[in-house]
Queue: 3 jobs
Job 1
Amino acid sequence: MAIVQKYKTQDVAAPILEESKGSELKLKVDDYVTPPAMQFSNNGGIELAKSENDAGLLEPEKQGMSAAEYNPDLDRAPNKEHVLEEEQASAFDNADGDSEYEEVEVDDDDEVDDIFALGVSDAPKTKIIRVKKNRPKVQEAKPASETTVKDRDVPATLTDNWDDAEGYYRISLGEKIGEGGRYHVFANLGRGMFSAVVRARDTQQNDKEVAIKVIRSQESMYKAGMKEISILQKLANLDPDDRRHLVRLLGYFEHRNHLCMVFESLHMNLREVVRRFGNDVGLNLRAVRAYAHQIFLALALMRKAEIMHADLKPDNILVNESKTAIKVCDLGSASSISEMEITPYLVSRFYRAPEIILGLPYDCALDMWSIGCTLFELFTGRILFPGKSNNHMLMLMQELKGKFTTKQIRKGRFSGMHFDDQNAFISRERDRATGSDVLKKIANFNPVQAGTDLRSRLLPPQAIKGMSQHDLRLTNSFIDLLSRTLELDPARRITPVQALQHPLFSG
């Protein structure tokens, strides 16, 4: 019989968080009051679109790639460096007695990172994933007892062929799945590497709309799905009143040998919000501030649980219909800190923290880096680090923040691919004419002098003229917070709780 976990959902204020010794988190629910300055309202409250005098509007073409037109192909495209780095990562794994891995490219059309939201990009997508070589023979997951042919309003001739050749379930619109045919499927949202996702109506909840993730019928996929369920349940147990802005797992069941995960349904992600309200120029800073506060609440809970999301970006942050509240979603890449494994390809490249690329140990600080990149996108409408490779990413990071420390370089597993013996950075670019790599040695980076630091990008002198003193203070505060989330050294990077206590949210 299917096991369905039900959680309460309440529209309540989020608690204040304090960090004590040992990085423990204390919740002070009774003391919390949502800052009025960060409340959306339907009566002319926080606007999503920028005004003419807002910062971040000048010369957007010089600020990099458009966030609204983000294409996962560019973010995950393989290259020579990719192969070389993976050889080193594989050697590292084998030296420790672990399984050998390889990077493979798969179709990523309507991937689950934003599959709960309608109106996804029509651009073709691919994804680079890291999988074990020589995996054992795939086995089917054990079917749930309630998923019999009686539960389905489909012709009996289909019962002998429920799956396609790749193990995806052949779902039919109008089909009823779950215990007693509880969920009535009415829309296909597409498929990713590990699952297909559909929209359905919950007949036991007044036809409430839900999103159902149908995992492929393979043992490895089933185990991955159960791991995601375990993480979601752990987080939900720490947040019983649904105050912490993490997507809710409403339940799960098995249907025809497929694990099915039921989620609350949300219709838009933050990339789509930027595309609609701030294409190429970004959103109003007050809206960005409100979203940031909610995101940090979610990350504070994850840090308390010692869970890394490992794939944060605008696509994986959903918004409600009124655009006033967000939910962090897609924990398919999430894992415990104790499962940390050195690999240069964790997290989508544009949002990948430097410690991942260098091959250093990592923890929840990698998510703060990803959110720093995300907040920059929300405010400017441009991607902060549109690197073509890990090497290019490191160069862009140093152009913004200065050179890595000698300690980071020397301890990095993959540093030798990007730095010489004197710790000078070696930029590697492809010559378009010859197709060969061109190496360039860069001994130092001076972002302020070069005008590539955050303040020069977000608050150039000409932008200050039309700003009020209040807006200027707010923008300066935002730049300071952003800079702290983008510390090259994860040990110096701001934590979610520290971010919630930043003046940006109290001014």
Note: Residues 51 and 284 are 7 Å apart (CA to CA).
Job 2
Amino acid sequence: MDNAGNRPDGAGVFITFEGGEGAGKTTHIRFLAKALEGLGYSVLMLREPGGTELGEALRALVLDPAYGPVSPRCEMLIYEAARAQLVDEVIKPALVAGKIVLCDRFTDSTEAYQGFGRGIDREQVRTANAFAADGLVPHATLLLRCEGAAEGLVRATHHGSADRLEQAGLDFHQRVELGFGQMCRESDGRIRVIDTSGPKSLTAAQVFSALVDVVPALADSALFDEDYFSVLDVKAHG
């Protein structure tokens, strides 16, 4: 799918990674970035909320359980504020410069978590998303799906204490998971599902294959063969 009209000048490529808690986005973003850099691309890895000084401060604020219950509308607007700063300060300039931008979460997460999860009207979420992103739409979005919301939460929290979203409960995360699935079915091909239930090497191969239309060099089977991906199976899941 060609979304060149949504690029500041048609030069860069904007790829987002979505999914529930513990889906392994970090592992596969880093692995993809290393491969792209090896091909000679300039790559920028980002996360939401975050990626700017203001965004990281807002991230710490909105995810800290110490602040207690947060209004769903307040929560959504904090994410949108961080996004607006990230788009203007980092993403759009990077795309103008011809970089490949890999972002851990973007507008789809807000629709899934605050729309389906918190119950905010989806049209209101989409309007806020479009305003904060200034109309920017990813050229491709990979939806990483693990065994289920419960398994994902176990993965996400086994390293230490859970953040406020991770503490939201299984029912909430199941709504988020169902929301991602519905959004994928409604999409025009931008959102591509990646099954993470098997070995990480197979997941990575799916990631590369799913992005061939936006980064054709990833189709090089001589370079990206089974041995290339197998290194992931001896590393911890991210």
Note: The two ends are 28 Å apart (CA to CA).
Job 3
Amino acid sequence: MSGKIEVGILGATGTVGQRFLQLLEHHPWFTATWLGASDRNVGKPYREAMAWQLEGAVPDEAAERRVEECVPGRGPRVVFSSMASNLAGDIERAFAAAGHIVISNSSHYRMDPTVPLLVPEINPGHLGLLPVQRRERGWEGAIVTNPNCAAVTVVMALAPLKPFGPRKAMVTTMQAVSGAGYPGVPSLDALGNVIPYIGGEEEKVETEMQKILGDLDGDAVRALDLAVSATCTRVPAIDGHLATVSLEFEKRPEKEDLLAALRSFRGVPQERGLPSAPRRPVHVLDAPDRPQTRKDAGLERGMAASVGRLRPCPLFHWKLVCLSHNTLRGAAGAALLNAELMQSEGLL
């Protein structure tokens, strides 16, 4: 690639927007040249418009860049979105209608039947929805989404097992406080405590995986016939969403076959050597006390999921523990990998 592709960030001052900037600072394909945020921050230098929450310093190129109004047509054609869902609907639609490619971390359009809900290792073919989206919406741009940060933890573990015919999944998540953004969960609520409710989260986990694991059939995705029951909890970890999953299949597979499928799982990002792709998207950990959020969420720069404790389940067939990094594989890193896949397909 001779020159880098200019990209913008909608919602640049939030924690996911900050993570986008951090990941783009030395990216070989993309460079962030436009930062959009709420009206109260428009016109301010980026360093004054936000409270930096990540490790390391604010990227130098971004620090003095002026924050701009989230209005289409003023920034690059390709924009990443970390807008809150209640704002994303109108803003992302306006950008796509104006010809922008919106690569979104927001939940607003994930379940829209014309919008790809993309995990590049699992369903790259769902980009085939883009001509349908443009035809039905009448716009020249597009919207592509990535999954909920807890759903991606589980779907990365389930995708290698799809050939065995999963039919039921019971999921309990233990989600880090960074998933709530900043200032997020008050410390007196989070420390020494487990909060057994995250608004709207269980519904996302219960519905998004069927779409991701489904097959593109003509102009629509045929969702996988998988019943999911989820309980989502907030725990006092900083980063990393961990989940326990019990699975029932069409017929009981052998443990060795499941492990072999998990260990050998690769996808298009690995075949093409995309810059943000982990070498192994799923790591199988053999120690009985792994994965752990503090020790394993950062595997392969936070872009690999990990699976452990595969064992028989007295109610279903098998149960396991899985983990991924919620702001990397589950948010900004996921959207960036989506953009890399699209570029490799000639869609940007």
Note: The longest strand covers residues 166-175.
